[in-house]
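Hi L.,

As promised, HTH marR-type domain-containing protein:
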Amino acid sequence: MNHKIDHPVPPSLVAQIGALYHRLYKESDKLFREHDFPLQMDQVPVLMVLYYAGGASQKDVGTALGRDKASINRTISVLLKKDFVKVIPDAVDKRKTHVELTASGQKLAKQADAILGRFDAVLSSELTLEERKGLDKTMLKLIGLVTPC
């Protein structure tokens, strides 16, 4: 039995999910570059969290993405320099800030959402409705299992 042909990645769940993640990330990055998207792929999730949340604290963005504070701060700084976000100091606690998308950030997030939506549709078209529902259920279960309380 040739494992390299039968299993392009080790047959463990962690390895398979990791391989899928990296391939999806790489393909998404390629799609964004084809559309002359002005952000790096690792900055897009921050943009999308802010888009769907209607703004959030930097801490909440980090929690939502499972990323450290320094990483989120770097991305927010880039988005701020490119005028995609505005940072609003908390009126009560000067250490806290609220981050919101600017009009240009909203436009960019809608563009990113459309690109990701088309990619999602292509992937979903390869699955039956039953397979998609099962995948959604399984992915949410796995996310719940590895998400700290």
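The chain has one domain: 39-146.

Thanks again for sending the construct details.

K.
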